[in-house]
Structures are given as C-alpha cells and as structure tokens.
Write a structure and sequence with these properties.
The protein has 307 residues and is mainly alpha-helical. It has 11 helices and 4 strands. It is elongated.
C-alpha cells in the first residue's frame, strides 16, 4: 500500500535515475561533438564556461530570485506578518532546520517559493494572495512544503541540472552553427559508409539533445515537487492541509505580476495560472498536475470525495 513514506522514497530514487540518464546524455553529446570536431577541447571550454556562469548564479540565487519576484522582508511590527513568521519558526524546529528568512510578495495570485544556496541561507517568500485565501493548517502545509525544498537541497540539485542543461545547449549550439557555416574540422568519412551513418545519427542527436535535456530537467523538477509535498506532509502530520491549499491555489487562473519562465520551477504552483496549462504546453510543465499531487497526499478515495 502506497504511503507518504513510500512516495518519498520512490521520488528520491526516480530523481537520481533521471540524473543518471542526464549524465549519459551529456557523455553522448560530448562524444558526438568530439567526433564532429575531431577535438575534445571545445567540450572542456564549454564545461568551464557553463560551470562558471551557473556557480555564480547559484551563489547569488536567493538575491536574484527575491529581486525578480519583487519580494520584501516581513515587517515584524505587523502582527499578521509576525504571526506568519512564528508559524514558519515552529515548522523549522519540527523539521530540524534553521528558520529561513521570510519575505512577502504583493500579488493577489496565491503562490510561494523557497530559495537559498543551503540550509543556512534559506529564504521563503509567500504572496499576499496566498495569505488571504488559506486557513492556518493550509498555510502550514505550504510553508512545510517550502521548508522541504530547503531541507532536501533542491536548490543545489536544480543548479546541478541547470549546469548540465547549459553545457548540452552550448555544445549542441556550437556544433549546429559549425555545420551551418562549415566550421567543422571533422575527418572526411565519404569513403566510410558506416562512419557517415554514425555522423548523421550524431548530428540529428545533437540537434534534438537540448529538447531532450529540457524534458529531463522538467521531469526532475516534477519529481522534486512530489518529494517536497510528501516531506512537507510528514512535517505537519496533516496532509489534508497541503492538499486543501493546492486546491485553492490551482483554482486561481490569473498569472502573477512578475511571472517569468526562469523562476517558474521555484513556485509551489505554476505562476502563469491554470489557463496556461493547455494543449502542448502541458508537455513542458514544471509542476505535476494538482490532481496527481493531491492523490499522492490523500489517496484515490479522498480525491474522488473532494470532487
């Protein structure tokens, strides 16, 4: 029988399985790139550049994310905001984590996200719309979910994934441009039919690899959302709270004021609103469907009863 514990364990190993597939994809891209150029130095250069840019962004990830979201630090003189901080503080004690900094986003759309390069530099931001529509148990569920992202080191994992995606995109772009402008230095394989077939396969693969990498990145993001849901429910010992919050949040259709693709994966729900998740866009969702998340928290019977 599936429980929150089994869901948590399942999503951990599925995440690492996807990471393993990601690394295989990276090795394959490097192989075909070196085959095309006849030189692996271009791969090393791309790796160093991608690593430098992403480590830099990771070091300042909290400042960048909070600034892009238009978040402000809570006012401890405000009774309501002080109470929210106390809820977060109590949940942090339960989770065995340092209390993260708390920020408010002036936005009617209900949403929240966590950021920070490690547990000691964590930050949680919630919108005013979220605070208006949730009761205490639902708010605790959302805050526990965000604490789980910090405790599970999801910011670190997402940065590692961004580095891998960045490297794949850079190498693929370089090889593709070289093919267009005739800059490749590969050996002439015109007399080697097998070599030509391999080269054609490699070229097709390099063109498609950024799309494949993005799909894997989104799959990892969705698995980490499931993991944060289950971990958050274990912190509060009341999965109904988070499930109720997800229902209310998903019922709000309008996008956030500062919604953007770069930060979409950070939020507890898609910042572009429910209307954005239609047609082919569902393939590129950063979050699992709300129905699946609630089912994982409460089970099939609870979902049917709610509907």
């Amino acid at each position: 029988m599936a429980t929150l514990y089994t869901h948590k364990s399942s999503n951990i190993w599925k995440t690492w399985l996807l990471m393993a597939v990601f690394l295989v994809l990276l090795v394959a891209v490097g192989y075909f790139a070196s085959l095309y150029f006849g030189n692996v130095n271009i791969l090393y250069i791309a790796l160093i550049f991608s690593l430098f840019m992403n480590v830099l962004s990771y070091w300042y990830s909290d400042k960048i994310a909070l600034s892009m979201a238009g978040a402000r630090a809570i006012n401890m003189q405000d009774g309501d905001e002080r109470e929210i901080y106390r809820i977060l503080e109590n949940l942090s004690i339960t989770a065995g984590l340092p209390t993260p900094r708390l920020f408010i986003i002036e936005d009617r759309a209900p949403n929240a996200f966590a950021t920070g390069r490690n547990k000691a530099h964590g930050a949680v931001a919630v919108t005013t719309g979220l605070l208006q529509i949730l009761d205490k148990s639902e708010l605790e569920g959302v805050l526990a979910h965000e604490l789980s992202h910090i405790g599970n080191r999801d910011t670190l994992l997402s940065t590692a994934v961004v580095i891998l995606v960045g490297l794949i995109v850079i190498v693929s772009d370089i090889v593709t441009r070289s093919m267009i402008f005739g800059g490749g230095k590969r050996e002439n394989n015109s007399d080697n039919q097998a070599g030509m077939v391999l080269m054609i396969i490699g070229i097709v693969f390099l063109i498609l690899s950024p799309i494949i990498a993005t799909v894997i990145q989104l799959a990892i993001s969705r698995k980490r959302e499931f993991l944060a849901d289950s971990t958050g429910a274990l912190i509060t010992r009341y999965p109904e709270g988070l499930a109720g919050a997800l229902r209310k949040i998903s019922g709000y259709d309008a996008p956030m004021i500062h919604a953007n693709n770069a930060m979409a994966h950070l939020y507890i729900s898609n910042p572009f609103g429910a209307k954005a998740l239609k047609g082919i866009s569902k393939m590129f969702m950063t979050h699992p469907p709300v129905e699946d998340r609630i089912r994982a928290l409460l089970g099939d019977k609870a979902v049917e009863k709610a509907n």
